[in-house]
Amino acid sequence: MRTATPTDVFHNPSRYGDMASWRREVLDLHAAGPVHRIEAEGFTPFWAVIGHDAVMSVERQPALFTNAPVPVLATDAALELQESQPVQIRTLIHMDRPDHTDYRMLTNDWFKPAAMAAMAPRLEELSQRAVATLEAAAVDGVGVVDFNRDVAVQYPLQVILSILGLPEDDYGRMLTLTQELFGAEDPDLQREGSTPEDRIATLVDMYSYFMQLSADRQANPTDDLATLIANGEIRGEPMPDLEKMGYYVIIATAGHDTTSAAMTEGMAQLASNPDQLALLRDDPALIGNAVEEMIRLASSVRHFMRTATEDTEVAGQPIKKGDWLMLNYAAANLDPHHFEDPLRFDVTRANANKQIAFGFGIHFCLGAQLARMELRSLFSHLVPRLASAEIAGTATTGQATFVSGYKSLPLRYTLE
Ligand code: HEM
Q1: pLDDT band, residue 145 (cuts 50/70/90)
Q2: Tell me: the pLDDT tens digits for 240-251?
Q3: Which helix H or strand E contains 375, and what residues bound it?
Q4: If you measure from the C-alpha of residue 142 to the centroid of ligand 1, how many angstroms do you get, rounded to a whole number?
Q5: Considering only CA atoms, which residue is closest to atom 27 of ligand 1?
Q6: Are 13 and 401 in contact (CB under 8 A)?
Q7: Considering only CA atoms, which residue is closest to atom 43 of ligand 1?
Q8: Residue 139 burial (CB < 10 Å; 0-12/13-18/19+)?
Q9: Residue 414: alpha-carbon gap to chain centroid
Q10: Structure pTM?
Q11: Which atom of ligand 1 is nearest to the CA of 357?
């Protein structure tokens, strides 16, 4: 009989607030094995899958390991409350085949590289804006900014507003809603006195916002993604409102906190490793690989859950029908059997692009290409201008088990 591993790294949000200690403990867990039984008060017991190969093997079998019924870790109390609501949110992440295939097809081409190339001028403009922010904050070439607040949070949110076709005026509203939704466990990001009820109130706000948007794009179609969703058909029928809302919510939320966290992680790594910044400045052709390293170490989507539909095994560990499994991407990206010296930020790492931060298989991140383009564009503009960079104060990290990353990064820099 397998005994439970005594750790709270996977389910205690505050552990994600100190990633240095989180990573050290995860390395010890890797030494003990790729799959761990977690039995924690208030949670249904689950298996934490942390081996890179083990995560891939689960992802390769979507019929054996489904996203339904609960694809994100939550306490039993939070799940009970969710279940008691009259409507349940239903996004791509909540779906399995065959629905998932039909719903994903609707927007899949929109996110393909050829279509995404059309975004390049907008990314160029936002990257120039980021350089201008650093220039404006500098005196005689030396400046201090909060890189997360002043650059990284702004950029991906502007991209999402552009692809959905929303006005810049809605920026503040979208930012608050997403941060409340993902940061519901974090004391700084919650609504005041936040409870699971508040999280639901956040969703209701989003619903009403997107209902209006959808009605507008049905009446006045344009070429944006909001129009594609508003008028989308599934198996020849108009998409039901609930699924439409789910689509808007996932596009609006999945694409910015995740990407801004990777940007800030990237800058923190450059500031902490001047030799790597120097390598990139000497050879800008390395930026693509450096971006993979940034995304690997950020792993801002910490996990998704799966449920076993049959008795089976993962990496030799017997799993029972109905068992809940956590695919912990952040841990898999530190698997020492896969990434040599995994805590090292190495812009020349030969297998950096084998990082699994975007998942794998049928749910592979729809926005992976876009996120990569954003980071490549930003760092291609910043790196040549950064003569030096250092962390100038205490950086803070969000406390959330689902999506988290830096909340602030005080950065001192010298521009050329
Ligand atoms: C660095 C940034 C990002 C990271 C780390 C990330 C990570 C992930 C992960 C781990 C998954 C689940 C994959 C799986 O289950 O195998 C996912 C799914 C998804 N992501 Fe991302 N993502 C990022 C950026 C984006 C962006 C920019 C968008 C664009 C709007 C986006 C939209 C989505 C959508 C729609 C899904 C659901 C796909 C499905 O279930 O079929 N993501 N992402």
Answers
A1: very high
A2: 998 998 899 888
A3: helix 368-382
A4: 36
A5: 255
A6: yes
A7: 365
A8: exposed
A9: 30
A10: 0.95
A11: 5
Instruction: Write the residue with the smallest CA distance to atom 35 of ligand 1.
Output: 366
CA distance 36 to 52: 14
Gap between the Cα atoms of 309 and 312, Å rounded: 9
Pocket test for ligand 1, best of 358, 369, 370, 401 (most atoms within 8 A of CB): 358
- Which H helix or E strand runs over 87? none
Residue to probe by mutation, ligand 1, list 365, 366, 370, most atoms within 8 Å of CB = 365
Q: Where are the beta strands (DSSP E) in 176-274?
A: 233-234, 237-238
The pair of three-digit structure tokens given for residue 395, joined into one six-digit string: 């950086």
* pLDDT grade for 144, boundaries at 50, 70 and 90: very high
Residue 191 predicted with pLDDT over 60: no
**Cβ neighbours for 208, distance < 8 A, ≥ 6 positions apart:** none
Query: Residue 313: what are its φ and ψ, rounded to 5°?
Result: -145, 155
Nearest CA to ligand 1 atom 18: 365
Nearest CA to ligand 1 atom 21: 365
What residues line ligand 1, using a CB cutoff of 6 Å? 59, 92-93, 104, 250-251, 254-255, 258-259, 262, 295, 300-301, 304, 329, 357-361, 363-367, 370-371
β-bridge partners, 301: 403
**Cβ count near 316 (within 10 Å):** 9
Asked whether 408 and 296 are in contact (CB, 8 A), the reply is: no
- 133 Cα to the center of ligand 1, angstroms: 28
Taking residue 135's Cβ as centre, other Cβ atoms within 10 Å add up to: 12
Residue 74 CA to ligand 1 center (angstroms) comes to 19
C-alpha to C-alpha distance for 178 and 203, rounded to whole angstroms = 9
Q: 171-180 contacts: CB < 8 A, separation 24 or more?
A: 173/209, 174/252, 174/256, 175/256, 177/202, 177/205, 177/206, 177/209, 177/252, 177/253, 178/252, 178/253, 178/256, 178/257, 179/257
CB 334 within 8 A of CB 342: yes
Distance CA 101, CA 321 (A): 24
Burial of 320 (0-12, 13-18, 19+ CB in 10 A): exposed
